[in-house]
Amino acid sequence: AMMEELHMTHSQKRYLMDYVKRGDALPVQRFPPSGKQPVPASYTAACQPHKLPARPLLRPAKVCQAGDAYTREKFKPQPTRDLEKEKKRLQNILATGKDEVEDEVEQVLIQKKEEEVAEPDRFEELMNEIQERREFLADMEALGQGRKYQGIVLTEISQKLHEMEIIDKKRSEEMRKIMTKAFTVGNKSNL
């Protein structure tokens, strides 16, 4: 109502409403003439691209030294070896004449050999991979995407089967060699 009493133009009303929408205080000065309306500062900052300074801004040395950048951490020495363990090792060497570390190395080597044997067979891995691909294809068919993945999955399965055939041939050749050696050794012992 006050705007209508002052006979404001449409652009002047918009100018004031922009201040109200942003939550800023209304301007104290008189309104500019309708043709020369200033653009609010927030609009000019948002519309203009961010300009970098012509040269980099350097901080004074006092500001840099005031921060934590120049403080060093205190050195806290830590024991490089366990003294109790060293004492027990020396006692063991003097008592038995052997170093406990050598026995531990042998035990570690034995454990590594057992772990190598316990590794899953490549043939078994291939069978598991084929089963996973079949399950994936079944899931995709259930979702209606079977045709999209069928060619890829069947190709991968055929590659896995080919690799399984190669492994099977190698195993059968090794078994033949072992059997022929055992058979020839067995015949010589009977002679």
Automatic annotation (TrEMBL):
InterPro entries, A to Z: UPF0193
Domain of life: Eukaryota
Coiled-coil ranges per UniProt: 80-118
Keywords, in A-Z order: Coiled coil
Descriptive protein name: EVG1 protein
Native source organism of the sequence: Lanius ludovicianus
Source organism phylogeny: Eukaryota, Metazoa, Chordata, Craniata, Vertebrata
